[in-house]
Amino acid sequence: MSYVNVHDMLLAARSEKYAVGAFNIVDPMTAEAVVRAAEAKRAPVIIQTSVKTVKLYGCASLVATVKTLAEKATVPVALHLDHCKDLDLIRSCIEAGWSSVMIDASTFPFEDNVTMTEEVVNMARPYDVTVEGELGAIVGVEDDIHINEQESHLADPEQALEYVTRTEVDVFAPAIGTAHGVYKGEPTIAFDLLERVASQVKGAIAIHGGTGLSDEVFKRCISLGGAKINVSTQVKHSFRDSLSEYFQQNPQDYEPVKILAYMRDKTQEVIESFIDKFGSGGKI
Ligand code: 13P
């Protein structure tokens, strides 16, 4: 179908009360798994790349891989740069052709977060690239960003509208109690905070930390305005676990092409199950 702008995709999702899945890829096979899952479910989808992944493959190679898949796809596909505080890398991704970038200046004081986010919004506008920004600090490890329990804090609802209004960010990611990585216990999600933020912020809202959340939590987050849900850890685990599974079943096999295809197909199954939970299936 096409390589699309994230912003429009998410506004449609918010108004129709479903969420677009944003899945972190680690290589061309995981990218293909995301696109195949979206096509199988007739869902719009976002392929996300962490900073580490961008550094491993380089901007040109990653964007070429995703654009080639997107242009052949029968559903809308977007490419998003996940948590990044390096403004030079953000600029490189914008210039290379990402359709969306996230500036994560959430660990800086509020005024610095606003200034850095504004800078990225100004950088992105001439290219029609969507910008996501975060307020509060989401606990856990995402790529090179480590936030421990003491450093983590929820978004300040008083500052949410100010942040979004001043920065003109397209997608807002408030820390609401979800976490990156594997949950150690039942997470306490601040649904009241999400509700308050969503009543003030009319644009798209992103929910981070999708791995391990219950169907009920997804449902409530979506009903309160969450239009983009990020899933990274589960994609990586599925990809890795499928490799061990393959070798258990085929201990003598050594043909990488067969192994990679198996890993892609297993990862696709997991992504399809998230699309079902997010209600984005059948929207295309
Ligand atoms: P998980 O790794 O917990 O799925 O979180 C993904 C995420 O929010 C990426 O920004």
How many beta-strand segments? Answer: 12
**Any low-confidence stretches, pLDDT <50, length ≥5?**
none
Give the percentage of residues in beta strands. 15-25%
Architecture (CATH level 2) name = Alpha-Beta Barrel
User: Which class do the helix and strand fractions yield?
Assistant: alpha/beta
| Largest β sheet strand count, sense and barrel closure | 8 strands, parallel, barrel
CATH superfamily: Aldolase class I
CATH topology: the name is TIM Barrel
Give the CA-CA distance, first to last residue.
10 Å
Order of helices and strands: EHEHEHHEHEHEEEHEEHEHEHH
In terms of quaternary structure, what is this? Answer: single chain
The number of distinct helices, counting runs of at least 4 residues, comes to: 11
Overall shape: it is globular
Number of domains: 1
Listed once per kind, the bound small molecules are: 1,3-dihydroxyacetonephosphate
| Helical residue percent band | 40-55%
Radius of gyration over C-alpha positions, nearest whole angstrom? 18 Å
Which strand order do you get reading across the main beta sheet?
Answer: 2-3-4-5-6-9-11-12
Question: What is the average of the pLDDT values?
Answer: 93
Summarize the structure.
This protein is an alpha/beta fold and 284 residues long. It has eleven helices and twelve strands.
Question: What attributes characterize this protein structure?
Answer:
284 residues; alpha/beta; TIM Barrel; three-stranded mixed β-sheet; 11 helices; 12 strands; 50% helix; globular
